[in-house]
Amino acid sequence: MNTAVAAPETDPLLAPVPPAIQLKGISKAFGPVQANKNISISVKPGTIHGIIGENGAGKSTLMSILYGFYKADSGQIFVNGQETQIPDSQAAIKAGIGMVFQHFKLVQNFTVLENVILGAEDGPLLRPSLNKARGVLKQLAQEYELNVDPDAVIENLSVGHQQRVEILKALYRQADILILDEPTGVLTPAEADHLFRILDNLRKEGKTIILITHKLREIMNVTDTVSVMRRGEMTATVQTSETSPERLAEMMVGRKVLLRVDKTPAKPAQPVLEVENLRLTDDKGVERLKGISLEVRAGEILGIAGVAGNGQSELLEVLGGYAEATGTVRVNGQPLPLSGAGSDGQSRRARGIGHVPEDRHRAGLIMSFSAWENTIFGYHRDPKIQTGPLMNNAGIKAEAAAKMERFDVRPPNPNLSARNFSGGNQQKIVLAREIERNPDILLIGQPTRGVDIGAIEFIHQQIIRLRDEGKAILLVSVELDEIFSLSDRIAVMFDGQIMGERLPDETSEQELGLLMAGITDTAHAHMPAAPMAMTEEELQKAAEAEAEAEAEAEAETAPADETPVNEETDAAAKKPESAESADVVELPVPEAKPFDVPDKSETKTEIATEKAPEAPQPAPPAPVAPSIEVSTAPVSVEAPPKVTESISLGSLSATITQSAPQRPKTPEPKPVAKPETKQDSEESDKDG
Ligand SMILES: Nc1ncnc2c1ncn2[C@@H]1O[C@H](COP(=O)(O)OP(=O)(O)OP(=O)(O)O)[C@@H](O)[C@H]1O
């Protein structure tokens, strides 16, 4: 008798689909810090999988391992059921994985097309690659609502559009699995809505998305499943439909978290900050502040709402001593110089003005300096810190350790460089420095950007505590939730002007949305059901329609109002010369200098018509003098590293030499151009 049994024929359609991504037992340590401990996770294809966790929980590290940015100490990676080695990002791209980092890696003075093909050119001649990319981009734009002008230069695009370019880059490389690290941290609500529509479209087309975010609302709205990380471990994975924001917050932090701000009504006293007719024109001749007047009293929080780029940043920069302006500003009744002597950041701090800048990397911290050094910047000439030529290092370190403890900075190690802390912990270092100085007025920009839910609760409590102690607080945030829950009064900025002021209890997101679009007659304006869900284009159209209607109505009695400048179109019109046609092009200098320090750095990029050298290698630290100007023999500070990176595009190559960003007084620092490269040293800036 023939006992052989024929193997059952498996119908490939009925075979179980392997996970798009499966990680098994991934571990990774940075020196003594165990960033990932034996992590296993499985993500179904065609789904959006959220990853949440406190700052420093190890989310970015895990995803950087998956993208080949870091090498795991142990563990396996499976892509579509196949064990896959991912030693570098090229291998990740080959495996169909794309990543959009928190800090974009676009070359600022290249066009969208040039950025998209960079590193994925079809041959030495650029033209065919550019033509092919143009066609693909057109198709992707139609399929996924990823509209971007292919010929626009990156530095002229809004943050939301730059992010679309990052997504386009990944899709152009045929990524089926897309990792997004904190993608909405820098987006306006409308931009975030647009992004989620894009992600939904991608999911419908069968792409798999891994989304790292601190925003539980996003997790609840867009993900299918969610994993929670805590202190390097994966503690739970749940179906989104079977959980709640409260439950997720508790799983993340290990205790119940108050998801709303608990505060009593404000008791405003005397005016601390008085601003009249503040005007600022930038170096391109564009008027960024058009006669701002406002007042902040002791014991109250004035929240400034607005779509990013409408002058809020410039307002904070002028008041914080980073940019010069005209007008009148008084602090505690005394005039504040708006240019020349006494208008710098240190003088502002000496006048009792604390400042948490919107961008901690460019203006809040010196990334290569240790945490303890960063806790005194801006206050380093204070006699309590500096006696004669000497600084009390031991005292500063002890104080820094105590501040880090109070602000729950993890790890609470003052000797670690700022760049080796996770984003949220870097933010806590800046907040600790500014809040603990007990300022009369605190200027605070985007206080909880990239910060976890437990830390948000803590930061909000600190802001309220300062207010209740009688301090004046000027808050700028693109998070309407944050504006609503913290502010005692809300002013809305549009196109360099204050469009109106409202009390949080007497307004709505809809009304603020209209003001943010420049529509002041909110009572009569057509109110869309959910203006915050409008796209930028829709917001712009709404503003234009309103302006048109107003102009028509006023035409008979008065001259029509000046049409608001559309910065984006305006900027896009000033396109620099194409890189292809230029022999030598200077990349924009990152002009961010956190404090008044002697400018000893240089940033220069040359694009020469020659083949690029091998993979970029960070140069050893350059012999640049430390950036604090003190004659303090005992202070031992790390010199800002000089990094040289090379990139190539067809026959063009570029070398970027860059040391710690220094910043003269300019209103809007440009982001540092960074091509997509793997960092050699894992001790370097984690954000790449
Ligand atoms: N390049 C590095 N060198 C040294 N330590 C690092 C490096 N990158 C990350 N770490 C440390 O590893 C831990 C995990 O960091 P990771 O950035 O993965 O956290 P995260 O969950 O992404 O945090 P966040 O939400 O704040 O972005 C942190 O303690 C961080 O300080």
TrEMBL record:
Q: Where is the composition biased (Acidic residues)?
A: 545-555
Query: Matching SUPFAM superfamilies, A to Z?
Result: P-loop containing nucleoside triphosphate hydrolases
Segments forming domain ABC transporter: 21-256, 273-520
Q: Which UniProt keywords apply?
A: ATP-binding, Nucleotide-binding
Q: Which Gene3D superfamilies match?
A: P-loop containing nucleotide triphosphate hydrolases
Q: Is rRNA processing among the key words of this record?
A: no
Query: Residue spans with biased composition (Basic and acidic residues)?
Result: 593-613, 665-688
Is Cytoplasm given among the entry's keywords? Answer: no
InterPro entries noted in UniProt: AAA+_ATPase (IPR003593), ABC_carbohydrate_import_ATPase (IPR050107), ABC_transporter-like_ATP-bd (IPR003439), ABC_transporter-like_CS (IPR017871), P-loop_NTPase (IPR027417)
Region Disordered: what ranges? 534-688
Q: Where is the composition biased (Polar residues)?
A: 645-661
Here the segments flagged for biased composition (Pro residues) are 615-624
PANTHER family in the record, alphabetically? CARBOHYDRATE TRANSPORT ATP-BINDING PROTEIN MG119-RELATED, GUANOSINE IMPORT ATP-BINDING PROTEIN NUPO
Its protein name is ABC transporter domain-containing protein
